[in-house]
């Protein structure tokens, strides 16, 4: 049986305020084309279909379009909810949608209730484990400790118990949305440490033929049978080195796995550049990034004038600007707090300007700072503490 494993669509999410809706629509078209052209027998979507619990209307319309197009192909789709999704909202109408071959698994208590599909070699049982928030499901699974490993282990006990009752030779696929030990996170995943240690060992999933993971945005191989598809699009600059893709998985008659990565279309490459502003503007080696989405980290000792405007003259798609001034004699290694000790208000204000800009105030700026402090002090003594606090 040939499976297409994807996850973390995050429909409705922007990239540094740039709408990704058109790129997400292009991905859905690519997904449908891949299903049609590569003879896919089933699609598995391992959570975070939406970016938030109440998605914008345009994201819901895109999701609806995706379901209709997949249903029209007659290829079954198994989908679970992730930690960004509202399981209740995503699962509305699941019983009706099921009849169209779109199988939503958003209820934790259905972990042991598989979608069973068949090919020439027999049946394949697909078990959907939606994101399991430990504090909310520990009683349902009868575990004493609210931890991700404990609730996932309990869910997998239900999977293995059901699988043991099925005919010998039944192959099995588990969809799960979790942080599995050995996976590398990026900046764009929402933290799931509430309720206990986030990471779970891959051994929790022992006993099944393939584990289709979601949550981490980089495509990763935890083991031959345990893989993350990653997100189909980048959602943070920490993903600049990611190759965005889906897994095309073939399960043979004995459950052996062979895998192929299918690249996804991305609207622009990502680039992270670092250095003094003048150097970034002149460096010929950066010419290849001029049409990329750019995150620039400026290391100038003194913050330059109009840095974003100057950067966008060369890199028109600069989306993120960071400042990490290099150390100079006026920027010692002592912490900011240490450098404030023993200073009066005027000195602290001047030091703050130096801290954030890389150079202290000039004479005119000192006059402005002193006038501001004098005005505050005068107001304090005129109106009293309560008036100033208000």
Structure description:
There is one protein chain. 33% of the residues lie in helices and 23% in strands. It is of the alpha/beta class and 390 residues long. It folds into two domains: 2-263, Metallo-dependent phosphatases (Purple Acid Phosphatase, chain A, domain 2, 4-Layer Sandwich), CATH 3.60.21.10; 271-386, no CATH class. Strands 6-5-4-1-15-16 form a six-stranded mixed beta sheet. Strands 7-8-9-12-14-13 form a six-stranded mixed beta sheet, covered by helices on one side. Strands 17-18-19 form a three-stranded parallel beta sheet. α1 (21-37) runs parallel beside α2 (57-73), α5 packs across α6 (148-164) and α10 (345-357) packs across α11. The longest helix has 27 residues, at 363-389. The termini are far apart. Keywords: Exonuclease, Hydrolase, Nuclease. This is Exonuclease SbcCD subunit D.
Key features of this structure:
single chain, 390 residues, alpha/beta, Purple Acid Phosphatase, chain A, domain 2, 2 domains, 6-stranded mixed sheet, 33% helix, elongated, disordered C terminus, exonuclease, Exonuclease SbcCD subunit D, hydrolase
């Amino acid at each position: 049986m040939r499976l297409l494993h994807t996850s973390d669509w995050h429909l409705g999410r922007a990239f540094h305020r740039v709408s990704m809706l058109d790129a997400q629509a292009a991905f859905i078209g690519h997904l449908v084309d891949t299903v049609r052209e590569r003879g896919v027998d089933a699609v598995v979507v391992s959570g975070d279909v939406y970016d938030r619990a109440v998605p914008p209307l345009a994201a819901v319309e895109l999701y609806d379009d995706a379901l209709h197009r997949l249903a029209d192909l007659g290829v079954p789709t198994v989908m679970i909810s992730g930690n960004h999704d509202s399981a209740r909202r995503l699962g509305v109408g699941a019983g009706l949608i099921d009849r169209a071959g779109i199988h939503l698994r958003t209820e934790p208590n259905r972990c042991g209730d598989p979608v069973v599909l068949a090919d020439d070699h027999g049946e394949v049982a697909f078990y959907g484990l939606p994101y399991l928030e430990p504090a909310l499901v520990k009683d349902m699974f009868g575990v004493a400790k609210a931890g991700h490993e404990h609730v996932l282990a309990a869910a997998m006990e239900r999977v293995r118990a059901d699988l043991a009752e099925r005919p010998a030779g039944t192959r099995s696929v588990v969809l799960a949305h979790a942080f599995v030990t050995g996976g590398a996170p990026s900046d764009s995943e929402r933290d799931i440490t509430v309720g206990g240690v986030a990471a779970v060992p891959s051994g929790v999933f022992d006993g099944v033929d393939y584990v289709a993971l979601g949550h981490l945005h980089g495509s990763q191989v935890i083991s031959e049978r345990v893989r993350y598809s990653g997100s189909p699009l980048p959602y943070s600059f920490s993903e600049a080195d990611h190759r965005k893709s889906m897994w095309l998985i073939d399960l043979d008659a004995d459950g052996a796995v062979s895998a192929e990565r299918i690249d996804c279309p991305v609207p622009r490459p990502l680039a992270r550049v670092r250095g003094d502003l003048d150097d970034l503007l002149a460096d010929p080696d950066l010419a290849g990034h001029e049409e990329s989405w750019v995150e620039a980290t400026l290391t100038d000792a003194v913050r330059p004038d109009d840095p974003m405007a100057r950067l966008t003259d060369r890199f028109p798609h600069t989306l993120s600007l960071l400042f990490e001034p290099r150390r100079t004699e006026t920027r010692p290694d002592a912490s900011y707090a240490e450098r404030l000790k023993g200073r009066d208000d005027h000195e602290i204000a001047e030091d703050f300007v130096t801290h954030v800009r890389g150079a202290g105030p000039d004479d005119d700026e000192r006059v402005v700072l002193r006038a501001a402090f004098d005005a505050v002090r005068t107001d304090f003594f005129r109106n009293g503490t309560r008036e100033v606090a208000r």
